[in-house]
Design brief:
single chain, Alpha-Beta Plaits, six-stranded mixed β-sheet, about 400 residues, alpha+beta, four-stranded antiparallel β-sheet, binds alpha-D-galactopyranose, Ribosomal Protein S5, domain 2, 11 helices, globular, 15 strands, 2 domains
């Protein structure tokens, strides 16, 4: 076993130690798979639009080894729970976390990949329910680890797609491709613009001198998220069908203009119109935001973030009072470039760009206000942009 990275984080070491304790042996493989932030382009991925995510310094660490039988022995280090099953009979576990792993095994099998029995221990530091995609990280960790363990030779995009499908089919959330893509393809100090229609992607340097990504965690767990998420998806599809009656060539909201929405959707269904117009506008915002970034106009980039929040809150209606409060409180404050809710919505974090020296004062002001107004504790994370899923150790 050789280390392929210079340092292995203490979390990875703890996962590896647990693996030794439970399963013994030295021949295990360890992978790191990160969570993600998304700078702009929210709820656009499943509408074949653009997103601008990055992998971050919070990750899932997973150690795996082969077994001689068909059994699956899974251990969640953080929850101190274990699950035993068989690769021959994959059924929903009834308690959530194993399903992300089982779903990936099922999708590997659907691709004709013969997954054998394996032992697995995983843990990490992506806060659950905070909109940083701990589930995508777990799926990508599993896909990457099993691909290497069994020598399937799958390329990263195939692993992304099968991880997304695992969540769609086994977990039942109709998520788009962004989270799994960002977790797998992340690159240190870069954001990635992904065209969710063609799956072409471009890395943009994101090393803004003196400015940090500050995540304000509302501490609201997004329980509504999966049902409302699926509803939003259906509403967008309903809008596309209305436009298709006049323009059958249209395949998704990516092909639709605001004028078409005004002409064919607004007169029929005001709610569907609002949902769809948000998506079309968000794609346009992302385009100008990336142009701002290339020009180095970070102030203009920040304004697009506020525009995105406004749309998500008022038109797409996936925000909540806590997220609106947090964005309202940072707006116009000294050293704040921009902010908005991030991810699926109904809780989780806001993402903010803040000048380094303004962060402490900002947090000191908002945290007590948040406690007083919302009766909840604010958690704060500074996001660093890191590489995507990778192996920490090689089997030798
Ligand atoms: C969740 C989904 C993603 C994406 C975002 C919203 O994170 O998993 O696919 O749709 O919500 O942008």
């Amino acid at each position: 076993m050789t280390l392929t990275m210079q340092t292995t984080s203490s979390l990875a070491l703890r996962v590896q130690e647990k693996f030794q304790d439970v399963f013994g042996g030295r021949d295990h493989l360890t992978v790191r798979s990160p969570g993600r932030v998304n700078l702009i382009g929210e709820h656009t991925d499943y509408n074949h639009g653009f997103v601008l995510p990055a992998a971050i310094n919070k990750a899932v660490y997973m150690a795996v080894s082969r077994r001689a039988d068909d059994e699956l022995h899974l251990v969640s280090f953080d929850l101190d729970r274990s699950y035993t099953g068989s690769v021959k009979r994959l059924e929903p576990s009834g308690y959530h976390w194993p399903d992300y792993i089982l779903g990936v095994v099922q999708q590997l099998q659907a691709l004709g990949k013969p997954v054998g029995g394996f032992n697995c221990v995983f843990g990490g530091d992506i806060p659950l329910g905070s909109g940083m995609s701990s589930s995508a990280a777990l799926e990508c960790a599993t896909a990457f680890a099993l691909n290497q363990l069994f020598g399937f030779d799958l390329d990263p995009m195939t692993m992304v797609k099968l991880s997304q499908k695992a969540e769609n089919v086994f977990v039942g959330v109709q998520c788009g491709i962004m989270d799994q893509f960002a977790s797998m393809f992340g690159r240190k100090d870069h954001v990635i613009r992904l065209d969710c229609q063609s799956l072409e992607y471009t890395y943009f340097p994101f090393k803004t001198e003196g400015i940090r990504i500050v995540l304000l965690d509302s501490n609201v767990k997004h329980s509504l998220a999966s049902s409302e998420y699926n509803t939003r998806r259906q509403q967008c599809e309903a809008g596309v069908r209305l436009v298709q009656q006049q323009h059958p060539e249209v395949r998704s909201l990516r092909d639709v203009s605001l004028e078409q929405l005004q002409a064919y959707v607004a007169p029929v269904d005001e709610l569907i119109y609002r949902r769809c117009s948000y998506v079309v506008e968000e794609n346009a915002r992302l385009q100008s935001a990336t142009a701002d970034l290339l020009r180095g106009d970070i102030a203009a980039f920040g304004r697009e973030l506020y525009g995105s929040h406004e749309g998500l809150s008022k038109k797409y209606e996936v925000s909540c009072p806590e997220l609106d409060f947090l964005v309202g409180q940072v707006r116009g404050q000294q050293g704040v470039i921009g902010g908005r809710m991030m991810g699926g919505g109904f809780g989780g974090c806001t993402i903010n760009l803040v000048e380094e020296e303004a962060i402490d004062a900002l947090v000191e002001r908002i945290a007590p206000l948040y406690r007083k107004t919302m009766n909840k504790e604010l958690k704060v994370y500074i996001g660093q942009i890191e590489n995507g899923t990778s192996a920490l150790t090689d089997l030798r």
